[in-house]
Structures are given as structure tokens and as C-alpha cells.
Amino acid sequence: MLLLSFLALPRSAHRGLKPPSVAFGIEQVSFVFFCVFVVVFVCLFVCFVFVLLAMPPAAAQHANGANLVQASSPLSEAREVSFGQGLTEVQDHSAAEFYEGAAIHDLLVALSVDPAHGLPDATASSRLAEEGLNELAKSKRPGFCKLFLMQLTNVIIILLILAAVASVAIGSIPSAIAILVIVILNAGIAAATENSAGNALEALSNMTQPEATVLRDGREEVVASNTIVRGDIVVLGTGDVAPADLRLLEASDLKVDEMPLTGESDDVAKVAKPRSRESTKLTPEDMVFSGCSVTQGKARGLVVATGMHTRVGSIAALLAGQQKAGYCNGCLPDTSSGMTPLQASLQRLGMLIGALAICVCVVVFLVGLALGTKDPNAPSAPGWIYMVLISITLTVAAIPEGIPLCVTISLASGCSQMVSRHVLVRRIAAVETLGSASVICSDKTGTLTEGKMRAVKMWASGSDYEISGTGFDPSGSINHAGGLEDGSSDIGVRTTLLAGLLCSNASVQLEVGEDNISRWVPKGNSSEVPLVVAAGKLNFTSALAEAEFPRVVEVPFSSSRKMMLTVCATNGKACLGEGGMALPRDAQFVACVKGAPNWVLESCSRWIGPGGVVEPLGAAQLEQASMTVDNLSSQALRVLALAVRPLPELPFSTDDDAEVDGNQKMDMLCKDLILVGFVASIDPPRKGVPAAVQAAYDGHIRVVMITGDYLKTAAAIASDIGILTSTEGEAEAIDCLKLRPDGEYLPDAEMDLLTQNARVFARAKPEDKLEIVQSLQRQGLVSAMTGDGVNDAPALKAADIGVAMGIQGTEVAKGASDMILTDDNFCSIVGAVEKGRIIYAGIQKFVAFIMRGP
């Protein structure tokens, strides 16, 4: 069209007139400018094509973080000699993982430390000089000015800048100003949004406390956490935060909050000498990792890794080197998070416009010269001057200057609209990326489910019961299964729930929130809360239980023994609570045990039968109990067994209670138990999740659930919410052990075969998320990944859209994400995808309208 309109221009007959000398000078300058303009256009176009062709298809699978890891020292060399493998040989794993299998004696010898006296001050000082401070490598964030300049490096913006320069050359100053204003506004909005985003590496650095207690030269002293070195003996107490990765030397009733690292909300029991090392555990029982806080007990630990060698340090190395798939720095409008589908489309459009502009410019100039076209207002001037101006004018007119500003404003507007959908957008490009999402990988707990474990079924006196209610509210009823007959007066029911209350440390309290609405708020272990809430439906409260049956002994739950035990004084009561099991006259105490059904059943010799009568636990009754457990477990319910034992006296004195460890107490008291019942709990699906999952499938988006639960439990929950259909069953549910059968992840091709159709990943570790998202990206899928723990940060960073939890999420996860769910609800993701698609479609329509022209 531009070329045809040029052919209608008039041609002058005065071709032999010589222009004035002054005009000749202007002509020379114009001609030089035109040549430079064309050369610059061609060079930029060729450079961008070369960059796109040379651009790697995806970011490296694992950033080794070599520039961030401490330099090797004589100590690390000694460790290599002692154990045959050093940190340099395990670049993708933390030093703490390496130390997990080594014997304590070998570690003490390798680190040259006496556990009774600690390191000498001189040794600690020399190691500090060799190894450096115990802190993570600092990551310098680009300032606003750099971010602003980075927004000017994509094709369309460069075309607009050149168009502004050309407008000045031809004397169209208003046009140049208008174009530059658009460029500045676009870059300013994008840079401001990027600059406001948090930094995951900074959040990682703030996880530890500034000081810690260590044993040096035989005395305990408080030192700065960043001066701790490998070989130090660290003393931990309740409330302390581990300053480095520790191998436990001593531990007394120790529990650690590992939620910042693993995302699991339950406190983890730790011991110095574990009975076994289960590969399915998220963390070893004898390790305490940097940044994890002690919630109960005390301990001493040997520092085996500091700074970037810790498990948190390995995450920092991944974060520092992790880039998005298809990464191309400087693409519009978000320069740090890779090229989104919209950015790629606009990049191609910009190169196409640039190529066409160059072609039109050159063709118009050459055709004009061939036809001898003259300026009708200055027929005496040479024709090529006029053609230079015409070519530049047509080129400037061909550039759609409204596209960048429209895209940025649309995305920025989308960010504000997302807030009403409980989505806080941290990076502006994530809005349209969501609209292109083809798979959503979601956590189960708290995202697909309510995150509120609730007792829904129980078994007592040989009968099944259903427990009604919602959330943590203790109101509700207990009825016989399949009917409305009240079961709250049954002796077995009342004994079971009171025993669960007496063997729990959790509680629920009615609190008024900031919105002046009263809510029941749980306190304590999430596995115990359902027992406390269920007991509340019978008017059994923690305060009442403590008053009537004061606790005298407690053995905390341990993952090695799968049970918890408490001993309470009966104060001469004839029965275990109002309407409960009758107690022998000589019963001064009652032991209450809760735990895994198979462990508890092994210690039981009697049970409460129909009518509340205590009977021997024969083979038939044991088979009935086992079948009940299997039936409840198959429904994705978490089952706890409750048992009691009346005691005329304690087998040990409470005066020397500290001299008898937990295992000895268990051995003395966990025998000849009376099985009183089972309580089955579930974390129910969030309201609206099944409909949201169906809406995602209707929009051709695959939903994938990633959970730490066992395969059968995960498959049952996925079926309940519609992720798995009845015909698929467990066919599309994968145990993550298959991804790493020998401790190492499968090759890419085999990994992709496993993940291409999977919708459920069970027994997943946070590290598995990174492998899963990279596999999906290799298959050309645009992936959204949710996460809340520190270990989720690399996967959030690698995903096309990283989605952090606003309530349960750590600051590290939020800093690595593209957006935050302020309500931790899966439905919010699907709503955001819908909004992203609307915005994407609107931008497509606008670009089509601009390119079509009036």
C-alpha cells in the first residue's frame, strides 16, 4: 500500500537545475543520515535474529553455583581422604547430605574436635580465615536505572527509539516527543513493577538468628552466627534457630520446626541415634538444618556444613543460577523472568516490522530515484533528497508505537484486577503467562484442601461412627454410621475421645480476628487437633481433662516408634471420664497411648467390646480391627489408634524421671494395653475445588497434584476432587521414588515419559518439584507451580509461573515467585488463569487492530 501510494507522486521536469551550495550541504547530511539509518536498522535486525537462533532452548537443569560455593580448604581435603568423597564431587547436594551416613566417631576425627570440650579458639579462628564467614553469598539486585535501561532492549522499543530519531531528522518534533513519552512510560511502569518485587536470596539470608551458643575450649559462649565454623559444637534450646547444618550428638525430647525448609507444618522429632534411616523421610532424624527452629527440648550438635555448603546454601546456589525456560534477557516487558508467550510473539512481530520497514525504505528510495520523483514544492532540488524524507516518513509511519504502551497498561491493569481474586502479582508479565498456562502443578495441603484436619469417622466398641462438624469448631454430633442414632453415650466412644484428648498437647481457642469475626484457632500439632475438636463435641475440654486427670509422665511421638504416651493421675475416679470405661479400684494412674494402628495393636491384649465391657483381644477381634483400619485408610483417611492401661503404680519413680529415657518408658508401659478405638481424620477438599478442577479441564489445562502422602491416599484424594477419573484410578498416579529409583534422577527422556500423562505425584520431596517442572517444560508445556517452603523456591523460580502461598508460604518462596495467593486457594489460580486469558485475547485484538490500520 505504501509503495503504491508513492507511485502517484508527481515528477518534475526541471532536472538540469543545479541546487544552491547551502542546499547541497543539507543534502549531503540527509543522505549520510539516511545511509546510517538503514545500516543501523539492518545491523539491529541481524543481531536480534542471531540472538534468537543462538538462544538456548531452556535453562540449565541444575545450576552448580560454583561461583557461590566456598573455596576448598585443608579441612575439606581431609574430609575427602577420610570418606573418599568431598564437596567438589557432590556439587548438586549439600554437605549435610554427605554427612548423613557417616559415623559420629569418624566425623569427630575428621573435624578434629573433642565433643566434651569443643574446638579451641585458635582452631576456630584459623578455620574461619580459611573457610570464610558462615553466611550466604550476597546477590546484588539491579537498581531502578538498570532495570529501566533493560526495558529498552527489545525490538519494538528499539524501533520506536529509531523512529523518534528519524522524526527529529525530518523536522517532526511533536511526533518524536510523543514516541519518546510512550517509550519512557512503558519502561517506567515495567521497571517500577520489577523493582518492587522481593528477593528470595535476601530472605534466605535472614532465616538464621544473629547469635548462637557454642562450646569452645570447654566452656559455653555466645558468638556471632556468621563466625561459626565446621567442627563447632552448637548448644540448642527451645526457641533457638540452628545457625548451620548440625549432626546431633545429644538430644532430649527434641522437636524442630522444619516448615521453612520442607513446607510440612508438623514439628519433627529428632534423636541423636536413630534406629533406622528411612529413605522416604524428608529429613534425617539426627540432622538439624540451618534456619530451622527448636520448638521443644534441647540438644547439642556438631556443625558439619556452613554458609553455601548447607542445605539452605544449595538452594541459594540454585536460585542464583536458575533462569526460566527460553530465557532471553531484555525481552519486553519483564527482563528477569524469561520470555513469556506474549513476549515471544511481540519479539517476532518487532523483527517482522523491522524487516518490512527496511525493505519499504530501500524500495521506495530506489523506485523514486528510478522514476525521477521531485518535491512538488521545490522542483529545483535534487529528487533523492525528497526520496530520503519520504522513505524515512513511511518507515516511521509503519511502526505501531501504541503496542508497547497498550501491552504494559493492560498487564498493569490486570495486576490490580487480580487483587480482587486473591492473587497478588509480583511480576507484570506473569498476568499474560497465566493465560497461556497448559498445566497447573499444585500442592495438596492447604491449596486443594482446607489445610484443617478434621475427624470424620471413628470405630469403637466394634461399631462404626460418623463425626459431623466443620473446621475447628467443636460443635457437632457423633452418630452411628449410616443412620441418625446418637452414639455420643457409648462407653467406647467416650473413652476413645477422652483418651485422645489426654494424649494430646493441642488445643483450640475462640479468637477474634482483625475483621472482628470470632474463629476457632488451633494451637499445637495438626495431627492432634482433630482429636481435641472431636472430644469437644462431647464437652471434653483440655482444661477439664487437665483438672480431672493431671498429667505426670509424657513420652513424645517419635517417627521411629510411631507412638506417643502419657500417664495421668486418676485422683480416685471410678471411670475414665463421665460415661467412660470403668477403672479398677486400685488404679492410681492411667496410661494413654496413641499412634499408628499397627504399632498400637501389637501392644494390645484386650479391647472394649459391645456394651463397654473389657474383653480379651482374640484373633477374630484383631482381624476385625485390622479390616477396619484398611477400610478407613482406603478412603484417604489418616487413622490413629487409641489405647489405655490402668496402673496401680508407676514402674519408675517420678523423682528420677529424667534418668529413664523415652524408649525405656515405652517398654515399661506399652504392654497389656486395652484397645479403645480408632479415629479417622481427613483434610477435606476446599469448597469449590472440584468445580475449579473441572473448569481447568474444560479450558484444556491439566491439573497435577504433588503431595508427600502415600500413593493410595494421594490417588483417593485426587479422585475425590476430580483430578483423577474413576477409569484412570492409579494409572496416572506416580510414586516419586520412580523418578529417582537409585537415589539419582532418571535421564531426561525417561523422566519425560513418566511425567507426560501423570496427574498425581505421591511421596514427593520439594526437590522433586524442580525435576517435574523442567520435564514439563521440555515437553513444550507452559507450567504453573505452587509452593510454600524454602525448598520450593528453585521450582518456583524455574516454572513459567511460580505461585507462592500468602498465608503458609515463607518469605523465600514468596521472593522466588511470580504471584502470591493471598488465600492459599486453588480456585484463585483458576480464576487468575481465566483473567489472564481475557487480557491476552484483548492484547491480541488490539495488535490486530493496530496492524490492520484505519
Walk me through what this model shows:
The chain has 854 residues and is an alpha+beta fold. Among the domains are: 98-131 and 204-319, Distorted Sandwich (Calcium-transporting ATPase, cytoplasmic transduction domain A), CATH 2.70.150.10; 409-449 and 686-845, HAD superfamily/HAD-like (Rossmann fold, 3-Layer(aba) Sandwich); 454-682, 3-Layer(aba) Sandwich (Calcium-transporting ATPase, cytoplasmic domain N), CATH 3.40.1110.10. The chain contains 30 helices and 27 strands. Strands 10, 11, 12, 15, 16, 17, 18, 19, 20 and 21 form a ten-stranded mixed beta sheet that branches. Strands 8-27-26-25-9-22-24-23 form an eight-stranded mixed beta sheet, with helices on both faces. Strands 1, 2, 3, 4, 5, 6 and 7 form a seven-stranded antiparallel beta sheet that branches. α15 (402-419) runs antiparallel to α30.
> What fold name goes in the CATH topology slot of one domain?
Calcium-transporting ATPase, cytoplasmic domain N
Structural shape = elongated
Name the average pLDDT. 77
CATH superfamily of one domain: Calcium-transporting ATPase, cytoplasmic domain N
Provide the helix percentage: 40-55%
Q: Please give the count of helices.
A: 30
Number of DSSP-assigned strands: 27
- Using the coordinates above, name the CATH class of one domain: Alpha Beta
C-alpha termini separation:
13 Å
Q: Which sheet architecture does the biggest sheet show? A: 10 strands, mixed
What structural class is derived from the secondary structure elements? alpha+beta
Question: CATH architecture of one domain, please?
Answer: 3-Layer(aba) Sandwich
Subcellular location: Membrane
GO cellular component, one term: plasma membrane
Enzyme class: translocase
EC number: 7.2.2.3
